[in-house]
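Saturday, quiet lab. Running sequence design on the structure tokens for the scaffold JK sent over.
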């Protein structure tokens, strides 16, 4: 039996990437369905790091506290090269963010919190045991065939848009005829276990990297109280009676003394891959997360970048789906996120060459950590704070003032007047038009612009007026007349101009947003 229905948006995959997209659509009142072919959530996760840009995203969504209550605030990565006394580090504690650390938090728990937030706040849940078995585009809509694992029935739906958040073996990517190319790390296997590591003296506020010529070992304390161990370069046991715990024990004995591993509570292994899609979009079909890019686990960026893909796409898709923005806004998704994916691949390659370049000498690999700018550049990249969309935004000179934050850069949180922070006035699902002025500025012109913007674009833009605090002026610039920042819902600056150039700003907005319905 076959049934047919329509839904505006179909999200395929209910991992962290799909969940972030679902939440971003739900908080804007957009109709969608989210399917997942697994019959239930998995506990076999492997990611365990939440980086600063991801934490800023979660705070914007109002859910960062769930993760902070349990997660371990790690200073960063501590390197130990076998036979060497030096211990380079990647220290995240000096980052320009409210989250200057790596938050250690198990991916399965991340999944759980996102699911619970979606359920309790928006009464939306994934459709488990539901598989996409056919996908085609037909003009303005897609045609998708779904099958439930517990039934022979098929369902045909006709969404306008489909987003593949369905992982490295993405069915959506294949159906969209998008290539997924790359060749590095072929045959490299990562093995992982969670277990008690009695006697381990490594500090809990570092993720420890132990590097030998042929193997790599990671050890970190998890919020569960267990230690997570990750290994590459370790083959199968020569003795069929030797357990995996014993293999891990032999390896840890080569690096640290007095550590005894208990029987594991979780084991997993997977092949390290390096791939990126030829595009993140084909017509009305989009890719996000591992469906669009997969890379070395070095630095723990994969889950973070995927969630940020969804955060970028969510507000754009919501605006277009609700008729509040032009369809060409969706063109900016690939334009902005593909360069980020390529930078992540390059960055993880560089990190991989230090910690998992098996067979390469210790001296050569240590030397990579001593190059000029290595520490600051690597920390900035891994945290996600250095990623920007400057090259993807084309503006008139009057809309990208040099004194302040450049369009395409993230809008860092600063204190405003009193106890208010910038993030406090950005924590909503709309664009923010922020008018900033010195203390004695004439309010009339600012009020007039605010009224025009509200009348023309309605609920698409929230207008805020602030008096420049000392911290705001130092970061966002100060002028002898009011100036305007247009800040996107994902926390990046869209444009920056003087109040006297507001007409140019309105023309720019009209090119992207639709007029508010009367």
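Result came back. Writing it out in full:
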């Amino acid at each position: 039996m076959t049934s047919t229905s329509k839904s505006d948006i179909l999200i395929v995959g209910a991992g962290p990437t799909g969940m972030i997209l679902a939440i971003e659509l739900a908080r804007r009142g957009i109709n969608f369905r989210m399917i997942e072919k697994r019959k239930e959530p998995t506990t076999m996760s492997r990611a365990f790091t939440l980086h600063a840009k991801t934490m800023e995203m979660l705070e914007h969504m109002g859910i960062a506290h769930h993760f902070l209550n349990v997660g371990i605030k790690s200073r960063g990565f501590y390197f130990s090269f076998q036979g060497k006394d030096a211990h380079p580090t990647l220290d995240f504690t000096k980052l320009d963010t409210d989250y200057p650390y790596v938050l250690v938090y198990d991916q399965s728990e991340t999944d759980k919190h996102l699911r619970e937030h979606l359920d309790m706040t928006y009464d939306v849940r994934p459709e488990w045991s539901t598989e996409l078995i056919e996908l085609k585009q037909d003009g303005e809509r897609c045609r998708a065939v779904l099958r439930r694992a517990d039934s022979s029935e098929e369902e045909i739906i006709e969404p306008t848009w489909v987003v593949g958040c369905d992982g490295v073996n993405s069915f959506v990517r294949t159906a969209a005829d998008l290539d997924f190319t790359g060749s590095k790390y072929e045959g490299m296997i990562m093995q992982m276990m969670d277990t008690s590591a009695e006697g381990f003296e490594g500090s809990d506020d570092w993720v420890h990297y132990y590097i030998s010529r042929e193997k790599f070992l990671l050890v970190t304390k998890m919020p569960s109280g267990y230690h997570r161990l990750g290994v590459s370069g370790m083959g199968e046991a020569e003795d069929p009676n030797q357990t995996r715990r014993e293999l891990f024990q032999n390896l840890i004995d080569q690096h640290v003394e007095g550590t005894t591993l208990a029987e594991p509570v979780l084991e997993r292994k997977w092949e390290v891959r390096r791939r990126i899609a030829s595009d993140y979009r084909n017509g009305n079909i989009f890719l996000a997360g591992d469906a669009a890019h997969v890379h070395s686990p070095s630095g723990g960026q994969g889950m973070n970048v995927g969630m940020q893909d969804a955060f970028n796409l969510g507000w754009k898709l919501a605006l277009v789906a609700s008729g509040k923005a032009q369809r060409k806004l969706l063109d900016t998704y690939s334009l902005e996120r593909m360069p980020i994916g390529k930078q992540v691949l390059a960055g993880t390659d560089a990190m991989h060459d230090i910690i998992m370049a098996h067979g390469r000498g210790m001296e050569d690999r240590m030397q990579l950590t001593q190059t000029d700018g290595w520490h600051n550049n690597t920390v900035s990249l891994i945290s996600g704070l250095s990623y920007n969309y400057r090259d993807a935004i084309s503006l008139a000179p009057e809309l990208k003032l040099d004194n302040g934050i450049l369009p395409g850069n993230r809008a860092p949180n600063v204190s405003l007047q009193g106890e208010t922070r910038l993030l406090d006035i950005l924590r909503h699902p709309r664009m923010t038009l922020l008018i900033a002025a010195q203390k004695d500025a004439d309010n009339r012109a600012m009020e007039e612009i605010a009224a025009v913007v509200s009348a023309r674009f309605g609920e698409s833009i929230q207008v805020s007026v602030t008096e420049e605090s000392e911290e705001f002026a130092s970061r966002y610039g100060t002028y002898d007349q009011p100036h305007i920042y247009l800040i996107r819902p994902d926390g990046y600056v869209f444009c920056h101009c003087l109040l006297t150039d507001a007409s140019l700003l309105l023309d720019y907005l009209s090119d992207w947003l639709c007029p508010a319905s009367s």
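Notes for JK: The first strand starts at residue 2 and ends at 5. Residues 77 and 207 are 5 Å apart (CA to CA). Ask whether to fix the surface positions before the next round.
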